[in-house]
TrEMBL record:
InterPro entries: PAS, PAS-like_dom_sf
Protein name: PAS domain-containing protein
Domain PAS: 23-53
Record-linked PROSITE patterns: PAS (PS50112)
Organism field: Streptomyces montanisoli
């Protein structure tokens, strides 16, 4: 069946899923508790500068950090925003937020939209913009592998916390890039420590039974 995409485009779309992520955890008071190297590269603040500050002041995730008493706090959110990168360039940011449960705050994922280009040309030059979204990880051929690699992007936290957050992400919906009728899962590109792989396998097995 004709997908409606140029012949080379599916490969470019698949490659687009492999983009570095900024990762942060914001506590129930809205304060940053964890901040990854990727977040520093996207937003220009080191972990030392970011931890303890309000996440909404550092990241353009309007509506994604709803307080726990609001109905929106029970659902993940995603969006786009334009910010000035540390190098002064305007950067298109794609973001995803996940509520981590009662009084546990949010996980924030963010990606540089400039990574969705090749040679300066958009991945979908004549089509709609790429949008962030959510999907069940089990619908993708490498769904188990995606789940196993997910703990490796969590910034400097215990195995139990990484496992808990990973399970929550898999429960609410894996982060994807949406191109018209296509969904491409984000693929963590950071090297995953061996223990993180064990955590991911356990979470993947649990999520598959949901």
């Amino acid at each position: 069946m004709d997908s409606g995409f140029p012949p080379a485009l599916p490969h470019r779309i698949a490659a687009a899923g492999r983009i570095p992520l900024g990762v942060a955890v914001v506590d129930r008071h809205g304060l940053v508790s964890h901040w990854s190297t990727g977040a520093r590269q996207l937003f220009g603040h080191s972990a030392r500068e970011a931890v303890g500050r309000y996440g909404g002041d550092l990241m353009p995730v309007s509506g994604g950090l709803a307080p726990g008493h609001r109905p929106a706090a029970a659902h993940p959110a995603a969006g786009r925003a334009t910010v000035h990168a540390p190098d002064g360039a305007r950067t298109d940011i794609l973001w995803w937020t996940y509520p981590l449960g009662a009084a546990r705050g949010h996980l924030v994922l963010a990606a540089d939209g400039r990574g969705l280009t090749r040679g300066g040309s958009p991945v979908t030059p004549s089509g709609p913009r790429v949008m962030p979204g959510f999907a069940r990880h089990t619908r993708f051929p490498d769904g188990r592998g995606l789940a196993e690699r997910l703990p490796g992007i969590m910034p400097a936290m215990s195995r139990s916390d990484a496992a808990r957050i990973t399970a929550r992400v898999l429960e609410l919906g894996y982060p994807v890039l949406e191109f018209t009728h296509h969904q491409v899962p984000l693929t963590p590109v950071r090297q995953v420590p061996r223990q993180a792989g064990h955590v991911g396998r356990a979470c993947a097995a649990n999520a598959a039974s949901l």
